[in-house]
Design brief:
The protein is an alpha/beta fold and about 200 residues long. About 50% of the residues lie in helices and about 10% in strands. A five-stranded mixed sheet has the order 2-1-3-4-5, covered by helices on one side.
Length: about 200
């Protein structure tokens, strides 16, 4: 059978764009940092793939598989070993050819996309840390006063459309354009999502 996998980071996030599919759909609500094989839906998929009951596994975009390049590649290797083709709908990538052999071009592209996404997230965090450190050094950073401003949950709830675009794999600028908000707002929402996913 053909199946589709969707992942959101919180129960509030909308999965509608990810699950437009005529077939069995598996949904996880968890951080992308959790290994695929340790997620509830991920475990079920692994079991069914092992029994050769899933021939094609569709995913909206690569980042829905996870946030760790090594884990993504290990998962794809397991799927391929058990003759299950991973199809990345947004990127238009299939991991196995029609003859069941590994698509080497897709393997290279997935490795590059995963590494770029992971590096981008690490750079964003590093810039945030550096910015805070510089502000503290100048005496300009005091942190947010307790009880002031919106909480992370309130920010994400207020900007649900931005959350949907970001969790569907859109870039910050594209998410801003599609949601009709400023880039700064999208950056705040993106930071809030990272904070929530990492539990910090």
């Amino acid at each position: 059978m053909n199946a589709k996998y969707a992942r959101v980071s919180t129960l509030e996030q909308n999965v509608e764009r990810q699950i437009e599919f005529d077939g069995k759909v598996f949904i996880d609500s968890c951080s992308g940092a959790i290994p695929f094989s340790e997620r509830n839906a991920g475990k079920k998929i692994i079991e069914l793939v092992q029994k050769r009951k899933i021939e094609e596994l569709h995913v909206h975009s690569l980042d829905r598989m996870g946030r760790d390049t090594i884990d993504i590649l290990q998962t794809i290797k397991y799927l391929s070993k058990n003759q299950c083709t991973l199809v990345l709908d947004k990127e238009g990538i299939r991991t196995l050819n029609a003859d069941g052999k590994e698509n080497l071009a897709s393997k290279l592209l997935i490795s590059i996309l995963g590494a770029v996404a992971q590096t981008e997230r690490e750079l964003i965090r590093e810039r945030q840390r550096e910015g805070i450190a510089l502000a503290k050094k100048r005496g300009e950073y005091k942190g947010r006063k307790k009880g002031s401003g919106m909480s992370t949950a309130e920010l994400l709830d207020k900007h649900k459309k931005v959350v949907r675009e970001l969790t569907s794999g859109e870039s910050l600028r594209r998410a801003a354009a599609l949601s009709g908000v400023s880039l700064g707002t999208v950056q705040r929402v993106s930071k809030a999502l990272l904070t929530e996913q990492e539990g910090i």
